[in-house]
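REQUEST ID: PR-0412
SUBMITTED BY: lab tech R.K.
PRIORITY: routine
TASK: structure prediction, single protein chain
INPUT:
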Amino acid sequence: MVSTVVYNDVLDWQHDVSLEMAPQPMAQALIVSPTLKCIVEQFCCPEHRFYPASTTNYFNDSDQEKAYFVFHLRLREMEEKLFYPKTVFGIFENYFNDPQLVSTYSMGEIVSLEHYKEADKEISERDFDTRVAPVQAFYQQPYEVLWGEGKNIIVSENVKEAIEEANLRGVVFEEFTSYEIVTSSQG
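STATUS: complete
OUTPUT:
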């Protein structure tokens, strides 16, 4: 039997739903094709790793394994790479369901990762669902690939165009509107 399965260039990392043997990973990761890996490697992103992986069609044991990579970009790296003196933070109520911005800090009011953690801890101790988060994130590096929310990644228009040119399967783009991202290449 010859496989008729068409593999996507990006797969969602999730626990093994067919056997329910492997728990979902604690880190955010995507499973990407060699083609998508090559595209991402052309652009600036914070520290990341690609780990070799393979996949196959569970329901067709004659199907060959396909080479993929687990793309791991640490979320903690995002917080560490922020340039805090130029990042604007806000206080968001209902943060985990439908975040509503209720007030903002002035630029430069939160000046370090430690200060950010302290401010968030103080706010969340009063109300668990209220958090401090960026309204405008500033990075000193010209990053074009960043983690977004959940398992989504944020890409620049340049990366989006490269992916579209390659006609990759399984990649969906949505405009990122949660907060503004500014990199050194933008000002």
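NOTES: Helices lie at 34-41, 75-81, 113-126, 157-165.
REVIEWED BY: pending
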